[in-house]
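In the lab's daily routine, each protein ends up as an entry in a very long ledger. A line of letters takes care of the sequence, but it says nothing directly about the fold. The fold becomes a row of whole numbers, each drawn from a learned catalogue of backbone shapes. The protein below has been through that process, and both of its lines are reproduced in full:
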Amino acid sequence: MKRAKTPTILQMEATECGAAALAIILAYYGRHIPLEKMRVDCGVSRDGCNASMMLAAARQHGLTAQAAKVDSIASLQELNAPVILFWEFNHFVVLEGISKEKIYINDPACGPRTVSYQQFDQAFTGVLLLLSPDIDFMAHGRPASLYSALRNRLQGLDKELFFVFIASLALVVPNLMITALAKIFIDNILVEKLNSWILPFFSVFLVMIVSIILLSSLQNYFLLLIKLKLTLISTIGFLWRIMYLPIQFFQQRFAGDITERVSANDRIANLLSNEVMASLVSLLTIALYGVVMCILSWQLALLAFTAMGFSLFVYRHVRRQFADVSRNFLQKNGKLLGLQMQGLSLIEDLKANGRENDFFQRWASAHAEIISLQQKQAIYNQILTVIPACTQLVAYSIITGLGSWQIINGQLTIGSLIAFQMLWYQFFAPLQTLLGLGGELQKIRGDLARLDDIQNHELDPRFNISSTEHCLEASIRLDSVCFAYTANKPMLKELNLFIPVGEMIAILGKSGEGKSTIARLITGLYQPASGSIHIGGTALSQISPEISARLIAYVEQDVFLFPGTIRENVSFWNPAISDLAIEKALHDACIYEEIMQRGGLDCAVSENGVNFSGGQRHRIEIARALAQNSKILILDEATSNLEAETEKRILKNIQEKGLTTLVITHRPSALEYCTQIYKLEQGSLIPIDKEFI
């Protein structure tokens, strides 16, 4: 099988491998589809996507697509690459080709790599997807350009860029003048002994030095302005966008990985304001210095250009490998950070179950992979650093030898050779900067891809709603609501539910049936696939998130408490909530006395509330919901950690407040104040009589 070199497109999460593999095939044939859109086309959910969904998406984009099964590598060699393989029963990869010694695959998890015949035989399941352009296939788009992505980040900085360009262009003049002065000093003052030129020479030389200092200071000042603006604008915009992404985005990614992407903004800002700007100026100076070198000696200039061409050839040869390794490193490093945060957040459970060593082994394995990728990065980095440096040294030696031969033959003066050598340094130094920048640019390709995962992701559609606040009746109605995490596996089917104002309704059901999903649908965190949800007489889809958040309070089983005081945790930094309202909420949540005994509202809360018991944490969370003075309250297993008597008192207080309440529970003790009880079974709600519980 002849190898087909496919582009590198890395998955952002494990469930995206099928979408990424299909995006690789489409890009190979000239149809460049963003991974974010491919996720939607393939119907990627929290469970990923299957082969049938990928085939449907492939046909949608103009490919002839069919699944096949082979039982040997020999059968694969008869096919035309690339094809998609089902790998280890949980992953999709792209087969690029087969040689006598190894097999080439493009893995969405880590990029192009090779495997031995034995490794391939162990991992390949025999199932593959055959894809080729149909007669209706149309090329579309173009590969994501690194330079256009960087250029877009410089928008709005025209004034600063203009001054940097002018200052950099002006710097060329004194640098060339110093080179000319060196030639004059050697050829005229030293050789011809024109001593009367000494004072004018040093006067002009001093003026050039002062000019270089002033122009460099001006250049650095505007570069600093660019850096500050880039950091400020990009970070603020990035954080704003993160806050407005749908909840599903965060459920499918590590928190540590998302945090690390914020740091990537600063790295890109530093690169743009320092190396990139300096290198853009270097392109201009290289051209000007090259012209002057040709004037002094075209033979020596030709040698210099040859050395430059060799260095560029080396860079071009290792560029893709460096970029692939860098992308893989950044992705794995983000996941390692997420793993570390996960371990720290679960430290109590790890210790209670004696699993510290198991977690350490998992972390050590991920860390070893990071070290291996860092070593590969270092190798490519050394190639881009050492070879140009050696090329410069060899070229300098040859230039000196050839220049000396020209001096002996009267074709060149000593001053001209010295001036050429100075120009050679000023010519090649920016080139080395450019090659070094090339290495850095390959590193940030991964950063840009991970940032684009956020920038190109669709925002939560709720934030497009601009409804004005008005008095809404606190009833809840679900009409024929359907919802599915995976397209062909609906979780909720034609769900109908009505909760009158002020009533308390309970939903029972086994774990995994979708009880919490109903709660998230009512709060607006999820959107139904079909059907409608109404709050009062208004569709939830027409209520803005701000109004919805004030109207509906939601308490999950997983408690979130942050370092601060009880006042801050209950009010959630809302200055409109008074201390009196906080105390009333604590009283209704049956934790007022315990808080007062520990210092009142200024009582300190540790991270995740570890200085409180599990039941106390849940009651603080319930108090937070009650303090918002919402008309609707949803309790999703919120009282599961409480003793029956405390749970009964809290629910009684809630009922007396007249709140419309949905209680999701599995405990009979929570049903006493519920007027209606439903059981969720196989995606449908079944009414239950209290007498049969």
Notes: The domain at 464-692 is CATH 3.40.50.300 (Rossmann fold). The mean pLDDT is 83. The chain has three domains: 14-133, 146-455, 464-692.
